[in-house]
Structures are given as C-alpha cells and as structure tokens.
Specification:
Layout (H helix, E strand, L loop, with lengths): L1 E6 L2 E4 L4 E9 L6 E7 L5 E8 L4 E3 L7 E6 L4 E6 L8 E11 L2 E6 L3 E6 L1
Parallel strand pairs: 2-11
Antiparallel strand pairs: 1-3, 3-8, 4-5, 4-9, 5-6, 7-8, 9-10, 9-11
Length: about 120
C-alpha cells in the first residue's frame, strides 16, 4: 500500500508560481512511476508530468517549460514546481504512484489539491 498526501495548492494570479508537494508513505521503495495529474473544471483528467525510477521525465505539451517535476528521496516527497501559471492551469491536481508488483499494475492516488489561477 502506498499513501499519498498532496499540499501546496492555492489561488494565484496569472504569471505567478506555486509548488505542490506529495508526501509518500507506505510501500514507497518499489514505486515505478510518480506523477501529477489534473482534473479540469470540464472534468477532463490529464497527465501533467511524471517521473520514472531512472529520473526520466515526461510533460504535457501545455506545461512543458513552465512546470518541473522533481523528487527528494530522503524526504519521500515529490514536487511539482509550477511557474508562469495561466488561468487554464486551474484544476484539482492529484499525485499518482504506479507500481508493478508480480506483473500486476497498482495505482495509488492522493486526495487532490485545488489550484486556481485568476486573470
């Protein structure tokens, strides 16, 4: 079992920055991929960014160059630094962990944190 707790959401004006944190507990040692997703006001869930165990990263086209995913293994925490925020970044952001255990994919989600960007 993996537990994920997000924090760091809030309201900012366009052009501002926020840093989301995802504290990981439980079976954190065998996580294969950590990521951030968002659920837009139109209820579209989309991948924002993810990171594999080798440190390779993947970003949505809409955030590439503005957002950065990183992790601190000592703190068991994954971050999403969001710069140059736009109103269209408004969404609930969810932390996600994927493990492959004995050939079975197991996915864990956090509770979500709201990000609101105003004009």
């Amino acid at each position: 079992q993996v537990q994920l707790v997000e924090s760091g959401g809030g309201s900012v004006q366009a052009g501002g920055s926020l840093r989301l944190s995802c504290a990981v507990s439980g079976s954190a040692f065998n996580i294969d991929v950590m990521g951030w997703y968002r659920l837009t006001p139109g209820n579209q869930r989309e991948l924002v960014a993810n990171m594999g165990t080798g440190g390779n990263t993947n970003y949505a086209d809409s955030v590439r160059g503005r957002f950065t995913i990183s992790r601190d293994n000592a703190k068991n925490t994954v971050y999403l630094q969001m710069n140059s925020l736009k109103p269209e970044d408004t969404a609930v952001y969810y932390c996600n962990a994927v493990r492959v255990v004995h050939g079975t994919t197991r996915t864990s989600w956090g509770q979500g944190t709201q990000v609101t960007v105003s004009e």
